[in-house]
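Cross-posting from the chemistry board since nobody answered there.

I work mostly on the small-molecule side, so proteins are not my area. We synthesized fe (ii) ion and want a rough idea of how it might sit in this target. Sequence and SMILES are below. Is it possible to get a predicted 3D structure of the two together?
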Amino acid sequence: MEDRAAQVSFHAPAGPVWLRVQTRADRAVWPRREVEHPGGPGLLDVTDLPPATEVVIELGQGATVQRCTTRTLPSPPGPELARVATISDLHIGSVTHGLASTMFDRAPYRDPAPVRCARGAISEARAWGAGVLVGKGDLTQHGWAEEWRTLGDLLERHAAGAVLLGVPGNHDKPQVRDIAPHLGLRHAGFSPEPLEWVDLPALRVIAADSACDSRGPGSLHAHGDAVVDLAADARRAGRAVLLCLHHPLERAPLPLQYPKGVSWAEGRRFARRLAAANPDVLITAGHTPRNRRRRVAGLIHTEVGSTKDWPGVWGGYAVHEGGIRQVVRRIAAPDAIGWIEYTRWAAGGLWWPYSPGRAQDRCFTHSWSATRPG
Ligand SMILES: [Fe+2]
């Protein structure tokens, strides 16, 4: 759900499917539209919705009609100035899925599932309007040169013209590898630097390497001070900050989820210093890979799920003069959606309710504490 758009996810047999959208007050937004559905899972985009409005979405096939009521997000204050997208946990090169690695891609496509999912995410993020694309780690499964090259081919074909920021994750830093992670990033078209940033109107986007090695836990010991300095510098220039990490900050002294992120004590210290440097920071991470939102030292902290497994998403950030809107969109590519739906059955089916999080974890509008210059 966005301020002016929504994604409708459904399962239906092959055949025509119709969609109708109206406001709660019965004002037609979308007259009935019909599309031919190939059967199975599907995603439809609804656009041109009014912001902050309750809408009724009806989806029908034959005599069957499903109806849901939802509310579009309010737009952040001021005009929209730019769009940024994030992709993470692509795991290019992985061939199995699930806790016991018992799930295989058996679909008759030339490219393996992680490549098809990444291609869908990158091309759909660009079509959404993202001018900056951030890779938030675990871009490859084993950190091998061939995997980086595959990602580079995807970015060259589907992200041409976008500003690319990328950081490695733990999977990109294995002990046994045929290329160093920073050179792998360069192979893929990213800068090899562990700390990068780009300044947009009203927003500084920072990508920082939080991966120590191939094990799960992350740390900001290496780059945390520089991130705080960059955030303070952004504040002096009137900019808010979108900080992109691979590892989330742990929520409690004892890790509550697997894999582990940045330890609670270190994360709390870092977030306090960051908030003092610039109170208008949104931290977004991957790694877990699930969708969650909470506050850390007053800053917004989100985890956005993987491109390659249920619910198969990428993150979008609409940058406004006075705020930001996060949207987590599902990958709609027809050659990816079947695999993504299959992976909901990971962990004995527990992944299905666990990974997506709540709607407000994924999609929300946030106003900065001060109006930013456009
Ligand atoms: Fe990871």
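Reply from a structural biologist on the board:
Welcome over. Reading the output above for you: The chain has a mean pLDDT of 94. The pocket of fe (ii) ion is lined by residues 138, 169-171, 246, 259, 287 (CB under 6 Å). Happy to explain the token format if needed.
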